[in-house]
Specification:
This is CdiI immunity protein domain-containing protein. It is a single chain. The protein has five helices and no strands. The chain is mainly α and about 90 residues long. Helix 1 crosses helix 3.
Length: about 90
């Protein structure tokens, strides 16, 4: 699977080292999205939508997450899907 640069740019913001850089009142999702321009946001949204529509397994989503450059994992395998759904929701402006 070809991972678009926009999704990699977003995923790479998920690392514990940036926790002190995240402004008060913001979380990792807002921080990651805030580094994308409008075109990248659309590209990332389309990619995430495609991932979620394919009904990939949690393990497949985890593999894509880390291949994209994320350096932060989550406690449960299902949490990756939850994070992707939340990122997509915010990219859509819901």
């Amino acid at each position: 699977m070809n991972i678009p640069e926009a999704f990699s740019d977003l995923a790479e913001r998920f690392m514990f080292e940036v926790e002190e850089d995240i402004p008060e009142g913001q979380d990792y999702v807002a921080y990651a999205i805030g580094h994308l321009d409008d075109r990248q946001k659309k590209d990332a949204e389309r990619f995430i939508d495609g991932l979620l529509c394919q009904e990939l397994s949690d393990r497949e989503l985890i593999d894509i997450w880390f291949r994209a450059g994320a350096r932060m994992g989550f406690a449960k395998d299902a949490d990756y899907r939850v994070v992707l759904i939340e990122v997509r929701r915010r990219l859509r402006g819901d």
